[in-house]
Amino acid sequence: MNIDKINTETEANKFSKQTEYMEKIKRYLSDFEQDTGRKQTYFVFTTGCQMNAHDSEKIAGMLEEMGFLRSLTEEDADFVIYNTCCIRENAEVKIYGRLGRLKHFKKTNKNMKIALCGCMTQQDVVIEKLRKSYKYVDIVFGTFNLYKLPELLYTNLETNETVFDIWKEEKGIVENIPTILEYPFKASVNISYGCDNFCSYCIVPYVRGRERSRKKEDILNEIKCLAASGIKEIVLLGQNVNSYGKNLNPPVSFAQLLREINELDGIERIRFMTSHPKDLSDELILAMKECSKVCNYLHLPFQAGSNAILEKMNRKYTKEKYLELINKIRSQIPDILLSTDIMVGFPGETEDDFLDTLDVVNTVGFSTAFTFIYSKRTGTPAAVMDNQIDEKTVKDRFNRLVDAVNKKIYEIHSGFVGKTLNILVEDVSKQDENIVSGRSENNCLVHFPGNKDIIGQTVPVKITGNKTFYLIGERI
Fold first, then answer.
1. What is the number of structural domains in the chain?
2. % helix / strand / coil in the chain, to the nearest 5?
3. Average pLDDT in the 179-197 region?
4. Distance (Å, rounded) from C-alpha 27 to C-alpha 21?
5. Could you tell me if 74 and 42 are in contact, meaning their C-beta atoms sit under 8 angstroms apart?
6. What CATH number corresponds to the domain at position 391?
7. 3 occurs within a structural domain
């Protein structure tokens, strides 16, 4: 039996109802520990964007609140959950491969439960495949009802039947979900969900829904709590943060939100992503300039340099408008570093189109660039466009793009050698426990001698070397 719908409830009691299920599971896990002498464990595997990573922090928070302990490996876990992405086909292939491996582990661990959630599960074709070929998966839910995990897990424990709970739209934003942060000194904060842009290659609006903004007061309260717990850096997340607040009553601009966050005590750095060029206003540029805590770093995807391709992508700006925007930003914030997303191989892309893309790369100079080969996504307009580009041509263009991008990254990073940057220390090197890593305010990754005692601290580091994708330094 597949349970396709569990319950509907009003927005007011959404998560309060889930706490009841969490208590029931807590008692179940306590009984299990008494009977077996061990606690049940969980493992979360995440693919995709920072939004997914933050969702997984919420999943971990609910599971630990229920009494699960984190497992380092999925084969040893009692509850395995894959939080999925569907932006590119290889992300889905990876998940199916991991699910195949889990079938063996589930045979040896009769207590193992397997759950699948995230963007991938919002597609009908995926649900069909799971029903047919992966019947040993216990729970499947989507992007709109993550908060219902306790209820779905309890239903499966009670019935031992697969639970499918996929919503086609969100029924209100749920606040106050327990969260386990990956780092004790930096955190992500959702300010909006979904997207209204409908770029022709992108499946996000179909799997994440239309754009919804959180209330300003809820965002500010969350950040105040994070600051009180010792968080120094926050990353504001949304599919398009620049259009934040337009659907609120009364409307609030992203620039206004930034200014209010900038006034909060405790927070030292504010980052945000992702920005859409068509919505990056003069008001926002001025707020970035005037807000002392907003980092001198901006992720601004341009995707392609050809106006013909940009029009087919439904990006709503031209190459000239993008370059004009870059000049405007740099005139106000001269020391800002820029990163971007770039796609090659979009249907109909000619050699001249690709050369326009290279021209943007060479003109702007990005400190980081996420480069992608176009991936056909069923259900998007681009998937049925004529003139899909052959693999050999795409690979050649991609390699040339990467070479051009890397050359610019090296040039930009060379300019920091001999300078001193303030680095928020994040990790100890996996290869050498005497080396630590962190990021500057403008997002440069820096490795330098140190130990775990300074993780979470901001320290001055003199840059001594450039390795293209990261810098080498020594603490002053």
1. 4
2. 40, 20, 40
3. 95
4. 10
5. no
6. 3.30.750.200
7. no
